[in-house]
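Usage

Read records sequentially. Each one opens with the input sequence:
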Amino acid sequence: MKTSKYRHLKGFTLVELMVVMVIVTVLGSLAFVAVKSVRAKAHQAVCANNMRQIGVALQSYAIDNGAYPATAHTERLDRSWIYELEDYLGDFDELRICPADPKAEERVEQKGTSYILNSFVFVPKTDPFGNPVGKRMNRPNALKDPSRTLLAFCCADHTPAGPGNDHTHSERWDSWAAVTRDIAPDRHGGKRSNYLYADGRVVAWNGEELRQKVESGMNFAEPPGYR
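and closes with the structure output:
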């Protein structure tokens, strides 16, 4: 009798199956991490483009009006500063929202923005009677060094979605906890975030580097010549 050619073929052992399953799991995990990393970089690039265009709009607004737009600290609480730039921005609803913002949809609906302004520049100091005191930094020609002056940040995840919370409290940034109450230094990829400077640049800073600066006593939001 002829022996079947299939008789001596063996199936996978349990150990071999487990090895295959482990390999598939590892490859799947690597693919997931790669896709997540690509998505984070894409979101960061879109966010940076948003901030650059907002930077141009801020300068254009200041040229036309003599100063940067006011925040909810000095103006109406139901209208964020970003709406003062609506005529200067093309895709307004897209440009005011960071794609990595977990509250993106809420901010669109409640007329807010993912970006928060530096109070050192945009919130003039006043006395108890509301009269201006000290230097007014809310005009481009008042900024001593635009290349070292921060205008805007990505707001913290827990920042309310409405228009009232549209500026930081940078003068109180004496600890890392105070910084993260206002901004999201880990917005992109869990490590970095974008920062808009007055000269139009957008820089991606590493959150840990900024934390070290703050813990060394440096307030990185304070513009040169403020004091």
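Summary fields computed downstream for this record:
- Residues 13 and 138 are 73 Å apart (CA to CA).
- The chain has a mean pLDDT of 87.
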